[in-house]
Each structure stands twice: as structure tokens, then as C-alpha cells.
Amino acid sequence: MERKKMVKTTLAPQRRSQSRFPAQSRPAAACLLFPFNMTDAAVSFAKDFLAGGVAAARSKTAVAPIERVKLLLQVQHASKQITADKQYKGIIDCVVRIPKEQGVLSFWRGNLANVIRYFPTQALNFAFKDKYKQIFLGGVDKRTQFWRYFAGNLASGGAAGATSLCFVYPLDFARTRLAADVGKAGAEREFRGLGDCLVKIYKSDGIKGLYQGFNVSVHGIIIYRAAYFGIYDTAKGMLPDPKNTHIVISWMIAQTVTAVAGLTSYPFDTVRRRMMMQSGRKGTDIMYTGTLDCWRKIARDEGGKAFFKGAWSNVLRGMGGAFVLVLYDEIKKYT
User: Which residues have CB under 8 Å from 45's CB, separation 6+?
Assistant: First the structure.
């Protein structure tokens, strides 16, 4: 009898502890990273974060060489490393000269910072986008209230992008400065890596230096994300069966959206990257006194086309962005 009582007392706590973790239909990744009870909303948020982040990191690495070409064409006029006689004449000239002058692996210069930055950026964008959609689109019928539905998608996409930017801007700044560093090796390089870049700029200009160009970035990211998410979600929502749309159709929609969104916001991106190049500069090395001065000088000295330098590279790079949108939807079908 005593042995039976002992068995009962030892087993009872186990049953009570197990009852605190009821079986739920949760994705394996979410269970692994968040091994505690979560509400349905928390599980959905975790799924969005993981699915968006993984898809973004992979696609961004694939298009890293195109990304660096685009950045060099954008900021070379503001770089003290690239003199007027050594500036790249276009995409082809840039692609040919980079491996000759800096080595093939330099195509991925700044890619580590970009992957680190892009994972939380894209994951937060997708996760917050759905939360903002609940705010802006609650109770809206997409069939009978099309324009309100469209405006809500624009607002949710823009708000998600702006919110995420506040958290990851220093990483985006470092990625730009590392990609713009054209030194071959050692003393020729301005920065040794991600950490060295952040530390040097912080010591030189403080936290303000790491957020150089932030204001115009917010304007640009709202425009870009509003189109990126708003038009895509609206187009998908107009399809008869959005969840079972063929992957080719989804890719075509995503490709069109990323190209239009990228070209629309590209001048803002050019200005913000030029402003990023000002951090750590002193005296005569400073080209622009502020954002408005940057807009004015680019238009006056280089012409309106200068705002779109590297834009075609951006369209090609957008294929990676389109792939992210499609892959995100595909991953969510199995999570």
C-alpha cells in the first residue's frame, strides 16, 4: 500500500506539469524557438517572422553582386576613394572592373552586414504588416470597398517599413559604407569589417553618424513599402483564389510590383545613400550640408538622371525581392 501511494504522489506532479502544455497545432520551428505556450496571435507572429526572415536572407545573398554594383554607381560621386577619372561608366564597366581591381569575392563585400540587416528587416516588415492590416483593414470588404481596401494596404505596408527601419538603420548604414569601400586590401580599405565600421563612425560622429540620412530614408521606405506590400496584396486579393494561385502568376505579380516600387522610390534611396557617405567626413570632405542641399546639388551638378544611377541594377536586384514575396507565401502554406 505504501509503495502504491508513493507512486501516485510522484506521478501526480508530472501530470499537472504536462497539463500546462496542451497539444497545439504549431509549426516545428516555432515550437523549437519558442518552447512555451503562446496565443494564436503570438504563433502567427512567430511564423511570419521566421518565414519572412529565412526567405529574405537566402534571396539577398543570391543577388549580392548586383546589389554592390548598384550601390557603387549610386554613391561613387560622394566617395573620396573614387576620383573622377576612376568612376564607373555604367553597369558593364562596373562588373568588369570590380574583379580585376578588387577580386571576385569583393562582389560580396558588405553582404554579411546585409544578411544580418535584412533578416530582421524583412521579417519585421512581414510580421508588422499583418498587424497593421488588422488596424487599417478591419471590417473592410475588398469587393465592395476597393479603394478603401487599396488605401489600407498602402498604409499597412508603409507603416511596417517605417517601423522596421527604426530598429535596423545602423546595419543598413554599415552595409552601404562597406559596399562602397573600393580598397583592395589592408591599408587601402576604409573599414576592416562590420564591427570596425560601426565603431569608427560612432567614435567620429556619435549615434547621429550611424543615422545619417534617416529622415529621407523614412520618406523613401514608406513610398517603397507602400507599393511593395500594398499593390501586391491588393492584386493578390483580387484573384479568384489567392491561396492557390500558381507560383508563376505570383512571381509575375511580385516582379512587376518590385520594379515599380523600386523605380518610384529610387531618388530617395540615392539621396539617403549619398548622405550616408558623409558620416566620418571632416572639413572639405563634406559634400552636402543636409538632405535638401543634397537634392539640390545632385540636380544642379549631375542632372536629373543622376537620381537614377544604378536603377537598372536595382530592377535586376528586384528579382530577389519578387522571389522573397513568392517564397514567403509558399512557406506559409506549410507552416
Answer: 127, 130, 131
| Rounded mean pLDDT, 153-158 | 77
Give the C-alpha separation, 243 to 19, whole Å. 35
Q: 165-199 b/e with 16+ CB inside 10 Å = b?
A: beebbbbbbbbbbbbbbbeeeeeebbbeebeebbe
Q: Is residue 24 left, alpha or beta, with left meaning phi > 0 and alpha meaning psi from -120 to 50?
A: beta
How high is the pLDDT of residue 320? 62
Grid look-up 546595419 returns 171
**Would you say residue 16 lies in a domain?**
no
Q: For the chain, how many structural domains are there in total?
A: 1
DSSP state, residue 8: H
Q: Indicate the average pLDDT of the chain.
A: 80
- For the CA atoms of 295, 155, 317, 169, the dihedral, rounded to the nearest 10 degrees, stands at 60
Look up the CATH number of the domain holding residue 125: 1.50.40.10
Q: Which domain holds residue 302?
A: 39-333
Whether 11 has a pLDDT exceeding 50, the answer reads no
**Residue 161 domain-assigned?**
yes
> How confident is the model over 178-201, as a mean pLDDT?
89
In a domain, 17, yes or no: no
Which pLDDT belongs to residue 12? 46
Q: How many residues does the chain have?
A: 335
6 belongs to a structural domain: no
